[in-house]
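Module 6 notes. Inverse folding takes a fixed backbone as the condition and produces residue identities as the prediction. Think of it as a translation problem where the source language is geometry and the target language is the twenty amino acids. Below is one complete input and output pair. Work through it position by position during the lab.
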């Protein structure tokens, strides 16, 4: 019977407790993808209580940014700033993991050769033209992921998380909605997982067997034609077999469509809408844990502490992550760990955080007016 206060080990990385900060794109990076004082402030305010901090989607190529201020590790000059960030998180006692990502056809249109990279041309925004990646481009992308993973380790991060969720590039390959390829990168769940596997393998080769590699996956995509739970279970088994140390289990709880002229563009959500109950993704996360046989991180409206405490207590999941709640009140994790849940300043789920970054602005929050983006 575990409690949130118990430590846990992930391939030699010690988490002092079972509460994590999940990756949260802030749009506080510089236009060159570098760490800023605002980034340091955001993470230090949220590192003092949690066991694990997973730093936001950090792009492996300049043409794979989610927002104009996404962090990057596509060149060696970005390592020093990242070292400052890793150090400031670790100094406060949390383990520091960096999420590495390429947005593919969901990128911010800042230009570059791989802007719009896609398995088979599914468009997400009117201002980014998707193109089908050829085998040479796929190979280059895999080595860009491995290079960024190596730089994350050089910067002193305790581990990396490969972003395979939310219909960014790797997730676009995993999803039957966006991957209609006829070569070995497409087909059934196993074929569609080929890019993910090759990225994991290349990162493992670069980092060695003792370096923690996490992978973020969608448990399900609740959009027509999206990935099913069965697909996710199959992919999770394959990833665990390949040596992924922990699965960070997210989902696409819904999607909306933007209509421009006579074209439609999918806007996939990565957070539950207000009407969903707390912890609605915990049962699927527990199924993935059972199928894969490795530790899992659960996320999704766990911020009031109740379901988070129960899920760890009942051994359904190993670690719980608090996203929007930690934006609204950076002391939420500490209050839950101290049994002072009643003191939490609740996130009101207004989605201002999402809306601000989607407009290309620094992240803001209606509840917390002390964010560096104000
Ligand atoms: C503003 C914002 C930015 C996010 N950025 C990322 C990201 O960079 N990478 C990622 O995997 N998930 C990202 N997410 C998803 C969160 O990590 C988390 O899974 C989601 O918010 C659900 O958890 P919650 O209900 O506790 O907020 C983001 C969520 C929000 C609200």
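Target side of the pair, the amino acids:
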């Amino acid at each position: 019977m575990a409690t949130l206060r118990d430590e846990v080990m992930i391939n030699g990385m010690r988490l002092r407790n079972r509460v994590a900060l999940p990756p949260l794109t802030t749009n506080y990076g510089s236009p060159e993808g570098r760490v800023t004082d605002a980034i340091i402030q955001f993470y230090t305010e949220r590192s003092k209580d949690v066991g694990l901090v997973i730093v936001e989607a950090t792009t492996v190529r300049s043409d794979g940014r989610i927002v104009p201020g996404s962090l990057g590790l596509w060149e060696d000059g970005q390592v020093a700033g990242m070292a400052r960030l890793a150090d400031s998180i670790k100094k406060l006692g949390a383990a520091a993991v960096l999420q590495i990502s390429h947005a593919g056809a969901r990128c911010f249109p800042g230009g570059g050769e791989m802007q719009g990279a896609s398995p088979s041309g599914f468009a997400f925004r009117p201002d980014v033209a998707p193109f089908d990646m050829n085998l040479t481009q796929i190979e280059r992308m895999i080595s860009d992921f491995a290079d960024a993973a190596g730089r994350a380790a050089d910067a002193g991060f305790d581990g990396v998380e490969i972003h395979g969720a939310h219909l960014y590039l790797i997730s676009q390959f995993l999803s039957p909605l966006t991957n209609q390829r006829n070569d070995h990168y497409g087909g059934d769940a196993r074929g569609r997982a080929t890019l993910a596997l090759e990225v994991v393998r290349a990162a493992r080769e670069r980092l060695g067997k003792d370096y923690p590699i996490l992978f973020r996956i969608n448990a399900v995509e609740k959009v027509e034609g999206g990935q099913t739970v069965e697909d996710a279970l199959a992919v999770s088994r394959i990833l665990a077999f390949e040596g992924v140390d922990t699965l960070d289990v997210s989902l696409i709880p819904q999607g909306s469509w933007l209509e421009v002229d006579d074209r439609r563009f999918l806007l996939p959500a990565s957070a539950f809408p207000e009407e969903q109950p707390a912890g609605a993704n915990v049962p699927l996360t527990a199924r993935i844990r059972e199928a894969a046989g490795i530790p899992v991180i659960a996320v999704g409206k766990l911020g009031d502490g109740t379901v988070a405490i129960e899920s760890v207590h009942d051994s359904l999941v190993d670690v719980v992550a608090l996203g929007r709640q930690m934006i609204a009140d950076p002391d939420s994790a500490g209050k839950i760990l101290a049994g002072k849940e009643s003191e939490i300043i609740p996130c009101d789920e207004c989605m201002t955080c999402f809306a601000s970054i989607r407009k290309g602005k620094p992240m803001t929050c209606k509840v917390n007016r002390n964010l560096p983006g104000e």
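Reference fact for the lab report: DSSP finds twelve helices and 15 strands in the chain.
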